[in-house]
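Researcher: Structure prediction, please.
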Amino acid sequence: MLKLYYIAGTCSFVPHVALQWSGLQYTAEEVGRDTVKSAQYLALNPQGQVPLLTDGNWALSQNIAIIDYINDLAPDKGIYGVAANNDPKARAKARQWLAFANSDLHSGFKPIFGAARMIEGEEAQNKLKTNACDAVAKMFAGIDQVVAQQDYLTGNSISIADVYVYIEMRWAQRCKIDLSQYHNLNAFYQRVEADDGITAVLKAQRLI
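Model: Predicted structure follows.
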């Protein structure tokens, strides 16, 4: 059986939703930040990170790889959006946005969450966080423009890329990043959050 290891509210939320959408049998285990550095966990994932998916004795890390694997196991469940089931271009667009969320946008948060590990001195750390918050806010501009024209990033059906951006919007709230200049993001956020699968994972991870 599939098993997902996650830390609540992190990027591992995204494959958790993919599993929920897939209809596949799975279990999900919350782990602590100390657990992922344990010898037992490192034997499965030497990077010491979440998410981690196991399928029997086989282990897979990295968000995009895990999501692709889930999609391959349940190709008709619209994980990359309903249109993507039969349209390679729609699937590629969903992957484009997923890659943006996973690399560009996610990386933008790293100086905010880890300033103390990157630079010494409180003043320098605060300046780094401020600059990073400004840079993250600017990256939401393109998303705002897209969802001004359509409900979701790839059209009128939700995809896993929307889920990644949604969880990053929750991070932005936690970091007090002001996105109010983008007038379409709040409605997008509410649409994504209303999805039954997302609601189920929010409850499972005790985020609501």
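Model: The CA atoms of residues 76 and 85 lie 6 Å apart.
Researcher: Thanks, that helps.
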